[in-house]
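agent> Task received from the user: take the single chain below, predict its 3D structure, and emit structure tokens. No templates, no multimer pairing.
agent> Plan: (1) validate residues, (2) run structure prediction, (3) serialize to tokens, (4) report one or two observations.
agent> Step 1 OK, no nonstandard residues flagged.
tool_call: predict_structure(input=
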Amino acid sequence: MTDEWVVSADWLDANRDGVRVVDVRDAWEYDGIGHLPGAVSVPFDTFRSEDGPVGTMPPREDWEGLLSEAGVEPGDTVVAYDDTHGVFAARFLVTALFYGHENVRLLDGDYSAWLREHETTTDATDVAPTEYEAGDPVEGVFVDADDVLAALDDPDTVLVDTRDPEEFEAGHLPGAVNLDWKELVDDETRALKSRGELEEILAGHGVTAEKRVVLYCNTARRISHTFVALRHLGYPDVQFYEGSLTEWEAAGHPVE
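)
tool_result: status=success, residues=256
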């Protein structure tokens, strides 16, 4: 087993029997287009909610139901994928972290990339349901608006806005730097760029491993991918503002 946050298609192909693979595309894609052998379907819209504990996190009982139906145990290593460069799959993994599930991995690339050299199937995956019990958020990952307010003037913290430049220019948190999450993705491979390229891009935005990094976007979807990428690179202090700009503006906090 690997401790990496991001795993290659070859690694996953060789280790499918030892992990729980989760497909977060729409159900019609899973059923009609095909999926990775052994993957279970947990569509993105089933774990996004306006009625959860914070941001768009699903209620605890809904999350437990989804993972129970998918046959996931709390100790399982979960590998998630989508067909959108990994951004929706990363959101699934961050949701798992919010509910205490630490063994999470992102498939480097997506379904379209997998198709190039690996087999797929339209056969249904046999799943034995479990009685999944969620835990508490993984320590040191999630921050709230008060934490972000306290970090605005901290020289050792870099606040990162992962939206596109036009959104950033329309209004952003004071002192934030703009790092569009797509800058970290290679359009050809549909996976993360090389480690050297990633480190150069991040350093160019002042995002270094020596800094405390706090991420936000609009509704915490796009920051999920950047969070996983930074943890993959070994950044030790990366934090996730689940409420993001939606909560920030609703509370009347300052925007530049």
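agent> Step 4: summary for the user.
Residues 33 and 118 are 15 Å apart (CA to CA).
agent> Done.
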